[in-house]
Amino acid sequence: MSQAIPTKSNLLKCKKSLELAALGYDLLDRKRSVMMRELAAMTDRMTEIRAKLEQSYHEAYEALQRANFSCGKETVMRVVKSVPPQADFAVRYRSVMGIELPGISLRAQDGPPPYGMYGTDASLDRACLCFRRAAALTAQAAELESGAYRLSAAIKKTGKRANALKNIVIPSLQEDVRYISDYLEEKEREEFTAHKVVKNRKNADPM
Predict the structure, then answer these.
(1) Which residues span the domain enclosing 75?
(2) Which residue in 39, 85, 97, 146 is a FRET match for 127, CA 20 to 30 A apart?
(3) Stated pTM of the model
């Protein structure tokens, strides 16, 4: 049973709160729908990138094996050890319904191989190019994985808030409105009946 005090001012407050709760639910439901569409598109993209990433690393390791045969494993290891790790990531963000989604890319992926030509040939250059491509795809995969995780968490949170409004807040406010409205209507009928009885008695009394 409603615990709201049955007054006209409380009825107006409950109706206003109900209107705002309904609007809030509608906005949250739309937000959830937009994020779910974005997540679905992102999931499709992830499937595509993962397939490319697997193929890219397969090609890169095959190219590395050919370089080992062509240049010699010791030469390849010497070159690899001489090249400093490259982790120059560029991160940007875009907003989807207030959720910041990262965009990750690698800088300086073009240009000549970062090692000298002595003792090497085109097979090692080919392996370097393949691993650069694999690194770029890895950045894309990381971008999508991170974005999907953030979107999934936001969808879950938004769903809980929307369900709370739909299943708890709105029904409670509707019950309050019904209770107060019924109480005030009953009170008006009682007052009308009492007023009518008093009026009839006055009309019945002799002057």
Answers:
(1) 8-196
(2) 146
(3) 0.74
